[in-house]
Design a protein that fits this description.
This protein is α/β, with parallel strands linked by helices. Helix content is 17%, strand content 27%.
Length: 357
């Protein structure tokens, strides 16, 4: 697909500065070539004599940066949004799964389906399940008995809801995520590991996104809950009885142990680990790979293993970086001290003048 730059400028309500030309593709700055259109939100940060090979650039309307004559420019209020619209023109989205139930899917006679539901081949909808209006279940999705999916939610291939679990409206569950698996709790008092109670379920509130292979375990007696608008990345583990607040951001490979509670707007960076029964306050940020062993106050920023406040951890890391140099200084000081002690000892063993002084 090709387009005139003037056509693209009109599409995004932009102003073309420079000559019109043919554009064949879109690309980021560093991979663009002479056939490409790229964009920059902060053009003043770049040396435009070498920044990119692109033929044309989308820039902020407010920018006063003078680009070399070889570039043509589209000026818009929001370069990123405009560029995304142009990218979609060159790479149109595939048509969504059409409403209807595939004859290769299984839907229990006791299940209730809303209007314009789309269910792909080999999906399974068990007894007493509820699927809301315009929900989409891709191939291999499994809804075990008593589970429900809210309106306008999408479950990608092989996402699984165990029995009695619920997903709210406008949610996205990516491929192979599992909601409602048994919690990892055991009674070992008899010398054997006997699975603990699994009477709770999982409740996913509206607007939640679960990444590929994310797992949310069911509660023992009460539900595990993921709050409205929270976004959970790939390969995240949320254990039994957890209560995740609203609009949390939980990045890849985080592990949250049982009965943890978080406030709203908590951020957990990649590979954070949180021990059981910890409370994390509203707006707290847990830095990458933090090992969280104790409660975290509201608004705190913590990092490290074990996790401590960010400024404290930075001081520790700075001190650790200087450790080899510090060791050398200590050895030199010890050598000087030993020499002084030897001289004092020699004076003490002489005519006693050292003692008299």
């Amino acid at each position: 697909m090709i387009a005139q730059l003037s056509q693209l400028a009109e599409m995004v309500n932009g102003v073309l500065v420079g000559s019109d030309c043919v554009i064949e593709r879109t690309a980021p700055l560093h991979t663009a070539d002479e056939r490409s259109l790229t964009f920059a939100e902060k053009p003043e940060k770049f040396d435009w004599n070498a920044a990119t090979r692109a033929r044309a650039v989308v820039l902020p309307e407010s920018s006063n940066v003078q680009l070399p004559e070889r570039y043509s420019v589209i000026k818009v209020d929001n370069p990123k949004a405009a560029f995304e619209k142009i990218v979609e023109f060159f790479h149109p989205k595939r048509a969504p799964l059409a409403p209807g139930v595939s004859p290769l899917a299984y839907v229990s006679p006791t299940a209730k389906l809303g209007e314009d539901v789309a269910i792909a081949p080999f999906a399974y909808v068990g007894d007493d399940c509820v699927v809301g209006d315009r929900a989409v279940l891709h191939a291999g999705v499994v809804l075990m008995p008593g589970s429900s999916v809210g309106r306008d939610s999408t479950l990608f291939p092989h996402a699984t809801l165990y029995e009695n679990c619920s997903v709210g409206a406008n949610c996205i569950l990516h491929a192979n995520c599992v909601v409602g698996a048994y919690g990892f709790g055991y009674d070992s008092s008899t010398g054997e590991h006997r699975l603990a109670a699994q009477f709770g379920a999982v409740r996913i509130e509206d607007g939640v996104e679960l990444g590929a292979c994310a797992t949310i375990d069911r509660g023992a007696y009460d539900d595990t809950v993921v709050g409205e608008g929270s976004k959970i990345d790939n390969h995240v583990m949320i254990a039994h009885n957890c209560k995740i607040g609203k609009r949390n951001m939980i990045c890849a490979s985080v592990g949250v142990a049982g009965s943890v509670t978080t406030g709203d707007y908590v951020v957990m960076a990649g590979r954070v680990g949180v021990r059981d029964h910890v409370k994390i306050g509203r707006g707290a940020t847990l830095g990458a790979m933090a090992g969280v062993m104790t409660d975290v106050p509201e608004g705190a920023r913590i990092v490290g293993i074990p996790a401590t406040p960010e400024k404290e951890q930075m001081r520790k890391q700075a001190a650790l970086a200087k450790l080899p140099e510090t060791q050398k200084e200590v050895r030199a000081l010890r050598k000087e001290l030993n020499a002084i002690l030897d001289r004092l000892a020699a004076l003490d063993g002489g005519d006693g003048s050292a003692k008299q002084s």
